[in-house]
Fold this sequence. Notes:
The structure holds 2 protein chains of 2 kinds.
Chain A: H1 2-15, H2 21-34, H3 38-61, H4 68-89, H5 96-120, H6 127-145, H7 149-169, H8 176-194, H9 202-223, H10 233-259, H11 266-284, H12 292-316, H13 319-340, H14 344-373
Helix pairs in contact in A: 1-2, 4-5, 5-6, 6-7, 7-8, 7-9, 8-9, 8-10, 9-11, 10-11, 11-12, 12-13, 13-14
Chain B: H1 2-29, E1 32-44, E2 50-56, E3 59-61, E4 74-78, E5 85-89, E6 98-100, E7 107-113, E8 116-127, H2 132-140, E9 144-150, E10 156-163
Parallel strand pairs in B: 3-5
Antiparallel strand pairs in B: 1-2, 1-9, 2-8, 4-5, 4-6, 7-8, 9-10
Amino acid sequence: MADMALDRKLDAWVAAGLLDASAARRIRSYEADADKPLLLWAVAGLGLLALGLGMALLVSANWDRIADWVKLGVHLLLLAGCLAGVWWAGRAPDRLWTGEAALFLTGATLLGGQALHAQIYQIPGPVWHMLMLWLLLMSPLVLLAGKAWLTGIGWSLMLLLGLSAMAADIPDTGAWLPAQGLALAAPALLFLLSVMPWVGTSGFRQALRAVAILFLLAGASLAHLAWATAVTAADAGQWAVRMVPAALACALALTAHRRRPGTMPAPLVRAILIGPLLAVGLAFAIPHPDLWASRLVGVLVYVLMWGWVARAASDAGWGGLFGIAIAAIAVRIFLIYVELFGSLAATGLGLIGGGLLLVVLALGWRRLMRMRTR
Amino acid sequence: MKRRLFLFALLLPLMAMLTSIAVRQSAMADSSQWQIPITGLDLRAPFSGRYVRFEYDWKLAGDASPCLSSRGCDLCLDRNAGPVRATAVARGTACPHRIDVPGSGLTVRPLRQRDGPTVVFSGRIFVSEASGPLLAQQLGSGRAAAVVRLDTRGRLLPRALVILPAPGAPEPAG
C-alpha cells in the first residue's frame, strides 16, 4: 500500500517537474531495498503470541496441581533470566532492543511474581499496594537502564496508574490528602526526571517529557470542568492541601531545568508547568458556585492557559504544540456557545459568533505558520 | 558509581522476591494446621483466576460487632471442646492461635439469624479451571471443610478444600 502511494507521488513529482526520472528511479530502488516485510513479521508475531498464550493457558488450566515451590522457583528463574538479559544488553550499545525487551519482560515478570505471591500466600490489599511495590522495585532499574521511547512511556504510565489508583482508594482526610496530591504531582515529577542527565538515554527522557506535557495539559483541560460544578469552602481547602505536592514538584522541575536549560526553551517550560498548576488551582482550590459567570471564568482561565502555551510554543518553534494549543482553544470556544445559551436563537447567534472567531483563529494560525516557513 | 547503582537496581527485584518468600516461609514454618467446616460456596471466575469464596462455619463466641467497624477485630481459634471455635477479641489481643482478620484478607459481613444477629467471615481459595467444576460439584452435594494454616503472624492461609464424610460417619481429626 505504502509502495503504491510512493509510486503515485513520485509519478506526480516527475510530471510536475520537481524530480527527474532517474532520481525517481533511484528513490524507488532505495525504498525497495529498505523495505521491511511488516506483514510477514506481523504474521510471525501473531504465531508466537498464540504459542505463548497457548502454553500459558495450559499451565493456568492445571494451576493448583503444580506445587507452590515449583511455581515460585520457575518464577525466580525467569526473573533472573530477564535481569541477566538486561545486564548483558547493557554491555554493548548495539543491543538496544534486546535490552529494552529484557527490561519490559523483567517488569512483566516482576508484576506476575507479585500476583503469584499474593495468590500463594493469600496477601490481601488493594491493587495499588502491588503497583506501588512494583514501582519501588522496578523504577531504579528502568530509570538507569531505560533507552527507548516505548520503555519511557510504559514506565510513565505505570507511575501515573499507581499514584492515581492510590489517590482513588485512600481516605479523603488529614494526612492522606498530600498523598492524594502525589497523583497530581506525577506529571511534574516526570518532567523533573526528564531533565536529569543520569536518567536513561535522551530518547527515554524525551518520552518522560512527552507524557509529562500530555498529562499536564490534558489534566488541566479536564480539571477546568470543575467550573461547571459548585466547589464549597471545605472542598477548596482539601484541594489546596492536595495541590502542595504538585506545586513543590513544579518548583523542583523549574529549578532543575534552569540548571540544565539546553533541553527545552525556558519560557515554554514555564508555560507548561505553571499554566496548568494555576488552572487546576483556580478551578479546585477557590470556592465558587455553579453559575454561568463561574463557567465563563473557567473558559477564560482555560483560554489563557492554552494561549500562554500557544505563545511560548510559537516563540520556541514547537509547531505541533502550537497547533494543538490553538485547536484546544477553538474546541472550547465552540463548546461554550452550546453550553451557555438556552434558546435555539441564542445558541444559533452564539455559534455564528464562535464560528467567525474560529475562522479568524485559523487564518491567524495559517499566517503565523507561513511567516515561520519563510 | 553509576555501575554500582546499576548492579543494585538489577538485583533489587530478585532480592525483594527472595526476601518475600523467605519471610513468608519462615512464618509458615511454625504455623498450625486446622480443618474448619465451610458453607456458602461461591465459584467466581474474575480476571485473576477462578476463586472459590466460602464462609467459615465455626462456632463464633465473644462480641464480634467490632469486626464490622473500622476498628476491626482479631479472632482466637481453639478446638478443645470438639468443633472449632472462634472467639472475637480486640485487635492485638494475645492468644495461642490468633487470626489477624484484616491481615488474612477475610471478608466480614453481618447476618440476621433466628436466634439474633451474627457475623460471617469469608475466605477464598484459588482453584484451577481443570479442578474447579469437579470441586464445585462435590461441594454442592456434601459438607466441606477448608484446610488452613495459621502462621505466627496471625495470617490464616487456606490451602485446600476437602469433602467431609456424611453425618454419622467418623470425622477426620482436625
